[in-house]
Amino acid sequence: MSQRTEGKIAIVTGAASGVGKEDALLLAREGARVVLTDLNEEAGHALAREIGETALFVPHDIASEAGWQQVMARTEKQFGAPSVLVNNAAILLLGSVEDATLEQWQRVMRINADGYFLGCKYGVAAMKAGGGSIVNMSSVAALGGMGAFCAYSASKGAVAALTRAVAGHCKQSGYRIRCNSIHPDGILTPMTAAFLPGGATALPEEVGGAEPMQRMCHPRDVANLVLFLASDESRFINGAELRIDNAQTIMGVA
Ligand SMILES: NC(=O)c1ccc[n+]([C@@H]2O[C@H](COP(=O)([O-])OP(=O)(O)OC[C@H]3O[C@@H](n4cnc5c(N)ncnc54)[C@H](O)[C@@H]3O)[C@@H](O)[C@H]2O)c1
């Protein structure tokens, strides 16, 4: 059995659901010890139990600086210094520039932008001695902009620019820390299920059919890219924006 993240200590935010859950399962399967964080304590603890003694769940609000300090302290105590950080947790709120309120905009920015800034800040501090890989979940919304999701699109643009700034700073500082962003189109997760024809009850496997080039992106498709970026196989990929959208963006329909 291949062990592509053997010896890694990985933190995955938003690990109780969707993409984060698949990331955590795959990184653990490939040999990493994983720290799962989420607001959803019940599902987070359940996943950590499912993975076993190589997993730890820490309740966490990514927008809280004290929360990040606690995640880093508990990671260090349980497993040692982290070498992988997957900034994955985020929220999606519907609202065009005309419909969205300032309160909605600020709520999205607090989680999707402030939360990623704090993750990178504490991630770099924890990794600068030993090196590592930071993977930031952005979206095609950062590249094209989605009219119906104004604040979300802007927050994902902030994540993309933050990623480049972090990669550049780490390289200039001589740290062995890579930082890359991932830009998926629609993925079948609880975040998007509410907007799909079968609604929130539609299960990923049931929507879109089995034909790989026609169906929507599955969380596992994204987890495979996260695994690659977490592993040393991607050691020369740094400051990159990786689209995972089955050509939707270049067809101008994203
Ligand atoms: N689903 C898509 O179509 C899609 C497309 C492009 C990008 N993305 C990005 O992928 C990532 C994962 O999305 P998903 O579809 O798996 O979403 P999801 O809603 O299934 O899971 C998100 C998880 O984050 C947690 N979370 C939310 N706010 C949090 C906070 N403040 N602190 C800690 N945890 C918090 C939630 O409890 C949930 O478990 C997100 O960054 C999202 O923007 C998703």
Automatic annotation (TrEMBL):
- Write the record's keywords in alphabetical order, separated by commas: Oxidoreductase
* Highest taxon in the source lineage: Bacteria
Name of the protein this chain belongs to: 3-Beta-hydroxysteroid dehydrogenase
For the protein in the UniProt heading, the enzyme class is oxidoreductase
Q: What is its EC number?
A: 1.1.1.51
**UniProt keyword Oxidoreductase present:** yes
Which organism does this record belong to?
Cupriavidus necator (strain ATCC 17699 / DSM 428 / KCTC 22496 / NCIMB 10442 / H16 / Stanier 337) (Ralstonia eutropha)
One family from Pfam that matches here is: adh_short_C2
Which InterPro entries would you find in this protein's record? Answer: NAD(P)-bd_dom_sf, Sc_DH/Rdtase_CS, SDR_fam
Give the protein family.
Belongs to the short-chain dehydrogenases/reductases (SDR) family.
